[in-house]
Amino acid sequence: MPNVPRSAKPIFRVDLFPPRSLSRRAARNIVLFIAALTTTIGFIFWSVGAWPVIGFLGLDVILLSLAFYFSFRSARQEERIELAHGNLRVTRISVRGEREEFDFQPYWLRVVLERGEDEQAALFLRTHGKSLEIARFLGADEKENLANKLEAVLRQTRCNPADIPI
Fold first, then answer.
1. Pairing relation of β-strands 78-84 and 87-93?
2. What tens digit of pLDDT does each residue of 68-125 get?
3. Is residue 82 a contact partner of residue 66, using CB atoms and an 8 Å limit?
4. Distance CA 166, CA 155 (A)
5. C-alpha triplet 14, 20, 25: angle, nearest 5°
């Protein structure tokens, strides 16, 4: 693929992150509320002699905390799509911070949105027998919006001779 310098100003850029409806602060407050509630319930059971229940109540709080931890950890992934003169680059940053880059020549690139069952959708970039699924963590409507934007930008780039690589 073409070797485009990183300093080239992109024509189009979009940064994608997994959607999160709950902030870290709200998650912490939920865990603290559940911990206080289960502690109160645990003391009631302890006072009537059913002290083993306390361990199970504590286990619920630990499992809820772990679920929030893994949920917010998965939110650290990122996907960046940049269109510069003669190159479309998809950069993926994983949960662990590992970086992958995929370069495409935009003139031949197709944006394909495949709809499946139950309102599921998959968004692909395809060219010369190669295919890359992008925006895996987005919903079907968000993928459709992204596909429309990418198609419009690629169409505009193809029609503008200044943006077509020599």
1. antiparallel
2. 999 888 888 899 999 988 889 999 998 888 999 999 988 889 999 998 888 888 999 9
3. no
4. 17
5. 125
Residue 129: band (very low, low, confident or very high) from pLDDT cuts 50, 70, 90? confident
CA dist 90 and 15 (Å) reads 10
Can you tell me the distance from the alpha carbon of 72 to that of 95, in angstroms, rounded to the nearest whole number?
A: 10
Q: How many angstroms separate the CA atoms of 103 and 82, rounded? A: 10
Distances 86 to 122, 146, 157, 158 between C-alpha atoms, Å: 25, 20, 9, 10
Is residue 117 within 8 A of residue 157, CB to CB? The reply is no
Cβ-based burial of 98 (10 A; exposed 0-12, middle 13-18, buried ≥19): exposed
Residues found in the chain: 166
pTM of the predicted protein model? 0.70
- Per-residue pLDDT tens over the stretch 20-32: 888 899 999 999 9
